[in-house]
């Protein structure tokens, strides 16, 4: 649907063509995303930034423009096609990379990468191995990017101790009266309090280094070429910030190696798919093993558990707070997601030795000692 709001925002970028169609893309849980086609046969992604989540679009877009320019330079140096392997953002008439509408909405525009698709579930093993390569390459492309110039777009995004604090506050406030409906889930989190600070302790001890990371490496944040089925481009760059390699590895496993969808309510269908875990480790380490230190590699499987646990805590917190953060389609949506993530955590715990052995196997394969 071509609404006035969308037309006004699109026209602020003065692309010259007229909109002939608008289709909403609902895969992401945060921003509102539209595929816009014009009578000049051009395709764009127009996005309304969720300013409840991203409070400072100026800083957000400064990060993204800096990072995408850097990536384009690196891709050109390597002889690649930056129009397919990277997102290309366009300035609006004011010269800024986003447009503020009269209702304070913030919009940005980038060129649509054609003949590419995303998957919510891995199409097959090769596709998931390739996602591992794509996110591994992405981290390498950002190696050497001046981390100190990046703004923290969401404060404490993967700082799990703060997520735990927020969760406790939500439990105590119980503003929606939902606490009684999720006693078991609350207990599941409290029982694992020690897990919430293990990684951050290792950062403080200097064991795990901060890198420039993507921090939202859901499988559907990789574009796959429709012809070659290769993972070509990493998208959703809102949370690029200093972080751990384990966050990027872990969130991909959380989202892609779950036997069920993130909001599957039949928990018998939820668990870690060990074969998918293995191919992702293969793809990711084939690109990154040389640059990661031993502690990073040795903690990959644990990192996957922590990212899953943290995401479950966030879904549960949002449920307790009345669904103010994640897009939901029904009142049970966030509690179903939280239960799903905790089932996956428990299953990873039960299989941790096997997961660690798989990582060790590929460490041996790719790391020259
Ligand atoms: C959100 O935007 P999207 O859908 O890729 C969230 C992630 C969660 C994910 C869970 C900025 O990602 O952190 O892991 O939902 N992004 C933000 O599906 O909070
Ligand atoms: Mg996102």
List ligands, each type once: 2-acetamido-2-deoxy-1-O-phosphono-alpha-D-glucopyranose, magnesium ion
Tally of DSSP helical segments: 13
Query: End-to-end distance, in Å?
Result: 57 Å
Q: What series of H and E elements makes up the topology?
A: HEEEHHEEEEHHHHEEEEHHHHHH
Query: How many strands, which pairing sense, and closed or not: the largest β-sheet?
Result: 6 strands, antiparallel
Number of strands: 11
Q: Which percent range describes the beta-strand content? A: 5-15%
Gyration radius, in Å: 20 Å
Low-confidence stretches: none
Given helix and strand content, the structural type is alpha+beta
Mean pLDDT: 96
Helix content: 40-55%
- Spatial shape: globular
Helix/strand layout:
Elements: H1 4-11, E1 19-25, E2 32-38, E3 43-49, H2 57-77, H3 82-85, E4 89-90, E5 99-100, E6 106-111, E7 116-117, H4 125-141, H5 160-173, H6 183-191, H7 198-204, E8 211-213, E9 222-225, E10 231-234, E11 241-243, H8 245-256, H9 274-288, H10 294-298, H11 300-321, H12 333-350, H13 352-366
Antiparallel strand pairs: 1-2, 2-3, 3-6, 4-6, 5-6, 7-9, 8-11, 9-10
Helix pairs in contact: 4-8, 4-9, 5-11, 8-9, 8-11, 9-13, 11-12
Bound molecules: 2-acetamido-2-deoxy-1-O-phosphono-alpha-D-glucopyranose and magnesium ion.
2-acetamido-2-deoxy-1-O-phosphono-alpha-D-glucopyranose binds next to loops.
């Amino acid at each position: 649907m071509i609404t006035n709001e969308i037309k006004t925002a699109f026209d602020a970028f003065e692309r010259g063509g007229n909109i002939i169609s608008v289709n909403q893309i609902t895969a992401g849980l945060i921003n509102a995303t539209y595929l816009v086609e014009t009578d000049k046969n051009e395709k764009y992604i127009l996005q309304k930034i969720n300013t409840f989540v991203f409070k400072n679009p100026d800083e957000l877009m400064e990060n993204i423009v800096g990072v995408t320019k850097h990536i384009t330079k690196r891709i050109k140096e390597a002889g690649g096609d930056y129009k397919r392997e990277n997102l290309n953002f366009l300035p609006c008439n004011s010269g800024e990379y986003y447009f503020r509408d009269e209702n304070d909405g913030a919009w940005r525009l980038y060129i649509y990468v054609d003949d590419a698709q995303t998957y919510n579930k891995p199409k097959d093993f090769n596709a998931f191995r390739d996602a591992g390569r794509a996110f591994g390459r992405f981290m390498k492309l950002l190696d050497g990017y001046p981390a100190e110039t990046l703004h923290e777009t969401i404060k404490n995004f993967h700082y799990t101790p703060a997520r735990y604090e927020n969760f406790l506050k939500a439990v105590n406030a119980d503003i929606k009266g939902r606490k009684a409906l999720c006693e078991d889930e609350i207990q599941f989190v409290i029982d694992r309090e020690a897990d919430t600070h293990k990684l951050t302790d290792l950062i403080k001890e200097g064991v795990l280094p901060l890198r420039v990371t993507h921090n939202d490496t859901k499988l559907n944040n990789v574009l796959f070429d429709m012809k070659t089925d290769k993972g070509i481009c990493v998208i959703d760059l809102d949370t690029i910030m200093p972080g751990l390699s384990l966050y990027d590895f872990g969130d991909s496993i959380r989202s892609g190696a779950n036997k069920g969808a993130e909001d599957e309510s039949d928990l018998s269908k939820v668990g870690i798919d060990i074969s998918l875990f293995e191919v992702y480790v293969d793809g990711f380490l084939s690109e990154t093993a040389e640059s990661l230190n031993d502690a990073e590699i040795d903690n990959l499987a644990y990192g996957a558990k922590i990212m899953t646990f943290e995401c479950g805590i966030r879904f549960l917190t949002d449920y307790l707070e009345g669904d103010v953060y994640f897009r939901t389609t029904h009142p049970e949506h966030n509690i179903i997601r939280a239960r799903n993530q905790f089932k996956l955590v428990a299953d990873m715990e039960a299989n941790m030795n096997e997961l660690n052995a798989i990582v060790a196997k590929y460490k041996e394969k790719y790391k020259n000692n």
